[in-house]
From TrEMBL:
Highest taxon, organism lineage: Bacteria
Keyword set includes Oxidoreductase: yes
Listed name of the protein: FAD-dependent oxidoreductase
E.C. designation(s): 1.-.-.-
Alphabetical keyword list: Oxidoreductase
Taxonomic source organism: Promicromonospora aerolata
Keyword Oxidoreductase: yes
Pfam families membership: FAD_oxidored
Top-level taxonomy: Bacteria, Bacillati, Actinomycetota, Actinomycetes, Micrococcales
Enzyme class: oxidoreductase
Amino acid sequence: MTPQDLQTDVLVVGAGLGGIAAALAAADRGARVVLTEEYPWIGGQLTSQAVPPDEHPWVERFGVTARYRALRDGIRDVYRRRYPLTAAARAWPALNPGAGWVSKLCHEPRVAVGVLEEMLAPYRSAGRIRLLERVRPVAATTDGDQVTSVTLASVVGGPDTTVRAAYTIDATETGELLPLTGTEYVTGFESASETGEPSAPDVAQPDNVQALSVCFVVEHVDGDHTIDRPDRYDFWRSYAPAAWRGERLLSWTAPNPRTLALDQRTFTPNPGDDPLAVDADQSKNAGDANLWLFRRIAARDLHAPGFYDGDLCLVNWPSIDYFLDHVLDVPRDVEEARIADARQLSLSMLYWMQTEAPRADGGTGFPGLRLRPDVTGSPDGLAQAPYHRESRRIQAVTTVTENDVSYAVRGDRGATRYEDSVGVGMYRIDLHPSTGGDTYIDVPSTPFEIPLGALLPQRMTNLLAGNKNIGTTHITNGCYRLHPVEWNVGEAAGHLAAHCLATGRTPHAVQAKPDLLADYQAELVAAGVELRWPDGVYPY
């Protein structure tokens, strides 16, 4: 097959939330964009990774970009137009189709895919955005401090494609372009001497990376739907991590992320609760007492009787966190083997639930649990892609540290204010167990800003970070890694690339010169990007 060469203004590698936001922003400002995606679905953690949006308590009123709000509104609109909602559900202004406790908008991933495709559609029709599907970056060329091309290999047997662009945005889930382009970056846990963070170790731990997870969706219906015994079941059934203090990973018991005490969760499928009474606000209630309700993505009682056989439950719990090894900067075959092992963990958790899990009635096993591969869009019923919580991170012009956002450090002063703010975000500093043996770090943060300097590598001049690869630390990644912040980061990067193309300015000059920065920020504000928090928001 003959390789193909493309030329464009902006190349966005990775069509997760950050990548889509970057492509939309750049195309809306007139730039020609090539957008790429490895997995069958665009949307990243919201879709192919099957993770409902983790958001702050004020998301319905402020604290996200206008485009991100349009995505959320579009998802609700699909349910109101196409699903047989009850009258009460249809009238619910803040409709939460899954009535899950983790988010005010729990929903099926396929619905988000459709809305994202719709948002891209006019730009694709006009030739402003070209989407290269089922490809991954495998090589890049540079000239000094500039990226000159990126080569993408098909994952389904097609030809390679080389793209040359004036600006390249790395919106991959793990910062895949950073090693390919020779861009300086860090992985894992920085040392206290490097960052000044009170929670950092004395010596850097580059291999100490947060757990990844392979999520899946189940329903509970009549019949025996037990899967074949997973190949690694014996290992995972007996595995007892140190943080579990003698308890097994495959259980209803796990550390409370905030207190580290061992908590006993419950599991009651289709409990017949009132979904309209769910108040998904993690500042008030973590919501994980009954795991069935925690990340429920379809609540049958919000719909006409009989439309759903049962609720749909998204499994993204401590028991499927994979922290035996990391997958950054290892050979491809090792990466694939470790992700396969993470998939074995998820299947083992399902098999344990179907066959051995204790029930409230004193029995064991829930054979009625059935995988829904049609919901995840994958043959085996697991999410198409692993949920990577932590990426390679650029050595940035500005690095956000624990001292900038931790409530224990900042107190009522609030987070560090950045003159070059390109957006806002809020989430607790939420670190899952890591490959270095650390347990949870889950502590309050203060509502924070996203500095433009965190999107800019110190050296490379035309490569921008557009995902979790921005200038955070292992610690602050814990609050900057969630859906609305990723979207905001990508949107700011897309705006910046188009702004620099239109004005002939460089990203570093825009960040460093107040008058140029003001011009760029004015464009962000006009597009509905909030640069500051209003008064009255609080840490949680």
